Fold Urea ABC transporter ATP-binding protein UrtD.
Amino acid sequence: MSNTDFVLAVEDLTVSFDGFKAVDSLTMYIDKNELRVLVGPNGAGKTTVLDLICGKTKSTAGSIKFNNIELTKLSEHEIVRSGVGRKFQNPSIYENLSVYQNLEVSYPKGRGVFGSLTFKRTQAVEDRVRKVAEDIMLTEFLDMESALLSHGQKQWLEIGMLLMQEPELLMLDEPVAGMSAKERDQTADLLNRICQNRSVIVIEHDMEFVKKIAHKVTVLHQGKILAEGPMDKVQSDEKVIEVYLGH
Ligand SMILES: Nc1ncnc2c1ncn2[C@@H]1O[C@H](COP(=O)(O)OP(=O)(O)OP(=O)(O)O)[C@@H](O)[C@H]1O
């Protein structure tokens, strides 16, 4: 069955590593402007699902359709160009560049990191940098060297660098790890803002944070879906309590 009503349709997705199925016949649909959170015990397959969607890992079977384009046949670069952004756990920003420059180099038609003499700082780039800086709460820090930002601000900057490319699907792996309580709240607000015009998939263990952001939660266990639905329903699911929340 091919479904065209979803931004992302994952169907019967499987990946085996030497016979071990890290993701096992997974079927999941993500709506336009949905914020979905993947939870589950260590080793459940959460990171592997994101690796499969962004093309870092190739599937053994099944399909991943993004706006009805089959992603399993595309390279990582082609997947990025099709509108999928992925943030890994550790921020990978250019520490010696300013916040402004980090955002600027992330603009799809912007200059490369090593600079291009022909690059002109167009109004479109400037406008986009300022809009994204506002979204990620770094307007006051645009001229600051990025190395001087707090850990949380570096995470936001990396989210901003992805936003510069206007992805239609953004995937974030444990975005609040290592953040203060205040930064977690600010990140929840940030994610609630950015999913207003794109879909977002977040992997997260902090259930208080999940409550603040999730439209729906998918609980993975041994590469399969154990439960899926709104947070309150998932939280009271006996199977979920037994294998995950009760620990
Ligand atoms: N490239 C690989 N080769 C072999 N095994 C792998 C590979 N990638 C993942 N795995 C295995 O697949 C399983 C799922 O791992 P994954 O990292 O997706 O889990 P997770 O749910 O993200 O866990 P965590 O919460 O600890 O990050 C684990 O048993 C892991 O060891």
